[in-house]
Amino acid sequence: MIGIIGGSGLYQIEGVKITREERLETPFGYPSDSIFVGEMNGKGVAFLPRHGRGHVISPSKINYRANIYAMKMLGVSKIISISAVGSMKESLHPGDVVIIDQLIDRTRGRVNTFFDEGIVVHISFSDPICEEMARILYEAASKVGARVKKGGTYVCIEGPAFSTRAESMLYRSWGVDVIGMTCYQEARLAREAEICYAAAAMITDYDCWHETEEDVNIQSVLTVLKKNTEVAKELVKQAVSMLDDSSMSCSCHSALKDAILTDPAYISEDTRERLSLLLNKYIK
Fold it and tell me: Which residues belong to the active site?
């Protein structure tokens, strides 16, 4: 099963047969919306609009844990994320796609882990994006004719407001490529859930640093977003057709191996039950 997380409407892709809606309850509550389960190019897919249908959930209020855990419950082993972002570099233009490979977290107070109570787990997160998945997304974007950059750093801000000009200039001084509000939590939780995760960052604007371009506002974002959505749909279709379990040799699916620090004897039954989908592979 291949998971796709994106904006409202991404599940409406020509050639996709949606067979059911799954409204799942997880140990962490409910996901952003029902998950649309179906088939694309002969492969099982599960679509989730991260902000809910109608875009009703702010980035700060998304239940990231429930979203990723629900994907795990459905048997998803890979997640393709489609995310609208601002460009932080002159060379990256609205309409371009960046297949990110690094993340910086500038959010405040969001829960970033499944293991915050009754158990301590230290995953490796030096390379937060699945390299093999990212390669496939890059090749897929190239095949559908997108202007695409392979590799890039995504700075994740709290939102829902866009950056101040001073913040935007600070992030540019760090050398980041794009700015957004959602990918960090998704990537980190996917790694804890041992799910491959890669993201196509779809550029809609120049944030507010550019001297000759209009400062980012929702009207300008929506104009480019409509064009980007069509590119995203074609990218997803192409990527799904290229994904093959037999060719994946990454370590994402063993991320918890040797990462659990807590002595099993001290892990309560409640914790074991709540996290059974993640722990049963390692703790009996």
Answer: 205, 207
